[in-house]
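Cross-posting from the chemistry board since nobody answered there.

I work mostly on the small-molecule side, so proteins are not my area. We synthesized guanosine-5'-triphosphate and want a rough idea of how it might sit in this target. Sequence and SMILES are below. Is it possible to get a predicted 3D structure of the two together?
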Amino acid sequence: MRDALLANDCDEMQGYLHTRIGRVMELRARVVTLAIGTDPKLRRMLTYWAATATLYALFVTLLAVESAAGMVPYHGVLGLGLYAALGASTFYALVRANAHLGLRPHTLATLQGLFGITCNMWAYSITGPLRGATLMGLMVVVVFCTFALRPRQTLLLAVCGLAGMGATMWWHQMRDPLHYPPRVEAVTFVIMAGCSLTVTFLTGEMNKLRARLKAKREIVEAALVTIRLLATTDELTSVSNRRHMNELLDAEQGPACVALIDIDFFKQINDRHGHAAGDAVLRAVAHRLRAGLRPGDALARWGGEEFLMLLPATSLVEAHAFVESLRAGMADLAVPGLDARLRVTFSAGLAARQDREPFSATVNRADKALYAAKAAGRDRVIGA
Ligand SMILES: Nc1nc2c(ncn2[C@@H]2O[C@H](COP(=O)(O)OP(=O)(O)OP(=O)(O)O)[C@@H](O)[C@H]2O)c(=O)[nH]1
């Protein structure tokens, strides 16, 4: 009795924990969706944002540590920290809401790049002897922007960065030549300019390579679509070809019916009106049959003037009624370019798949039923 109660308590506890964990997971998924959305492109952009925000945070934390050691003025670090936090959160909001704002990627990248440059100028101004380290930030700005900007736009941004940093250096060496020796500032500037222009050039080349790769990938993707279409479609009638129908038959697991449909006296049409007229009849019949298909049904050109229809989850009685309605509908089939009085008819043999027999056996029975329909005078539907 006691054991049973204990087991009951355990089950209840397990159920309770299960529900709680489920709710926590659901809440977590909602928060993640709210924060970074579901669109992969948006998520990628927010990943870039997160990388730069982390860099700002690291940078400001390091400066705070240095300010505690008396190397950097406290108020300068606080100001820069607030400015960086404000900028980072503004850009998060802009990127997150951009689906509604509609800002172009290069506009967003340029704004972020310019913000990065001003952070760099500020950091250079307050870091005293550590200022050389802040110059690395300019390279990050260039590389970050290369994802969204064209090479020329990246170059313009790099020039803006150099102008900003150059002005900052010039101002400091004019104001305080003791701590900012003009020669040191000049050499630093030249090295920084050389590095950032080289990085701009290299990222520009990388961008061109990426664009070329993208163009090639698009060509390959389009070629794959064409190859797939050619491999699965009958060129004349645009319905599936035999190979594709065989794939569909292989994939079909449940009960189904097949209908083998053969145009009557097609040789006569060819002989009397010419091969092109025969082709037009094939196209018109295929078009009419395809238009009559229900969702899930499939149609293929099985041979010369023969079509195979796959009717999943359909009984023989239902299939008979369905194909019979298609047959009756042929009475008003008009073939473009041919005498309107020409009546095109077809005969059809039906068979239902028995248990899980291979479809080749079902199609064989449908073929026999078709033969019977032809023998019985054509223009009719017979079930096996
Ligand atoms: N125009 C055209 N004719 C084709 C094509 N493929 C096969 N055929 C012709 O279709 C004809 C089929 O003739 P048969 O098998 O004798 O059949 P039928 O004249 O329809 O006779 P029944 O089926 O017994 O009513 C042949 O003359 C083939 O040359 C095609 O793509 N275009």
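Reply from a structural biologist on the board:
Welcome over. Reading the output above for you: The pocket of guanosine-5'-triphosphate is lined by residues 236, 262-267, 270, 275, 278-279, 282, 304-305, 374, 378 (CB under 6 Å). The chain has three domains: 1-36, 41-223, 242-383. Happy to explain the token format if needed.
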